[in-house]
Amino acid sequence: MFDEQSLRSTIQGVVQIDRTGAVTVKDPARLRTNVAAALARHAIFAEKAEVRDAGRWLLRKAGEAVGITSASILPLYRARGRGECGGFTVPAINIRTLTYDVARAACRAAKKLDASAVVFEIARSEIRYTEQRPPEYSAAVIAAAIREDFRGPLFIQGDHFQVSASAYYKGDREKELAALRALIEEALAAGFLNIDIDSSTLVVLERPTLDEQQVDNCRIAAELTAHVHKHAPAGVKISIGGEIGEVGGKNSTVEELRAYMRGYRKHLDEIAPGSEGISKISVQTGTSHGGIPLPDGTVAKVAVDFDTLRELSIIARKEYGMAGAVQHGASTLPEDLFGKFPEVETAEIHLATGFQNLIYDHPQFPRELRDAMYAHLAKAHADERKPGMSDQQFYYKTRKQALGPFKRQMWDLPTSVREALGADLERTFDNIFTRLRIQGTRAVVDKFVKPTPTAPRLAEHLAAILA
Fold first, then answer.
1. CATH hierarchy code of domain 73-359+413-448
2. Which of 117, 158, 300, 315 is the most exposed place for a label (fewest CB within 10 A)?
3. Mean pLDDT for back-to-back runs of 10 residues, the chain (467 residues)
4. Where in the sequence of the chain do the CATH 3.20.20.70 domains occur?
5. What's the predicted TM-score (pTM) here?
């Protein structure tokens, strides 16, 4: 039962709140070992919204009190654009399920390597099908950082805040943009101080010139950039990403990058003259989100165009002062390829499906739970089965859709199962982080990133809950 009484009992003797809303952690050891996880459960599963809000607020404030502060990675990326750091690729980890446990594993691996150049993110589509709104996601990640004593800047990112092309071109355009603006505001308030705007869905390759192909992408990216700046917490400059080619489409080119940046800067200067622009650019290099499943359930091999990544990263840094290019759809690539990304100075790499696969396919994952999830998919998502699709292909493509409806069952997995999953996830993160060369990046992050506390003030209804 996660209610007001259990929340007050959880923090008693550990977290103290004065009349102004200032938070003091009286017992950091108990906060780490017991209280952080309990607060996360209140923040996610409490029936009353007020109790969920209180749990989320407490995690933000307690995290800041012990040196864990949500931060923008912009200063690091601008330094990279100036040539003052480099040689590593920042992993951006999309966590679709068991968010607390997966984030703990990533924090452990990063601490072991003395690394803090790690981003935790969730995409607009993932928010929907995993049933994790931004305040819930950030609460789970902060709780994990507290549990593992992962101090310093904590980078939480809104990934693929994407415009639906069908809604934009064939539906209610203003409604679609209003939904994105509302999501941006919700994410910023929840401590997402890094936002990737994906309007690349609006690129129309059939138009005769590159400028015409990119014009809608440029204009909407500029409009949403200005909206991010307008609603950013006081004293914080948000790291914003743009995208020139939809992942899974044709490979990006230097000419497309220049066309995008011309149009984007023009529109941004018309809306908000002199505003900070994007800090990185997502490109298409031959991959696809989640990989391409074959009839036997294995994933097809893809060829990543590393020359494109290298060339676009160089242009992004030298001509526009950005950190470089961003690679999507990479978590299902062979692990021996990960070392190539820092070699070509890729700024950031987004990883998601591989961790989901590890969880679903783990030998200790309860078969009866997986069977129940697959039965749900067969009924609720039957319309997604394409002609000729094998069962293995259908479940591989759709099983992410079961993570929201079965969220509580995943959180309630036996401790032994979650520990086994966490151990294997940690080994996977350790390997990937090492290949991406982020070991020792705590020093460079601390040099450039000086996080500003952004947790909201204690509202009256929270005061009543926590009194």
1. 3.20.20.70
2. 300
3. 94 93 95 97 97 97 97 98 98 98 98 98 98 98 98 97 96 97 98 97 94 97 98 97 76 93 98 96 71 52 80 96 90 83 96 94 98 97 94 94 98 98 98 97 98 90 85
4. 73-359+413-448
5. 0.95
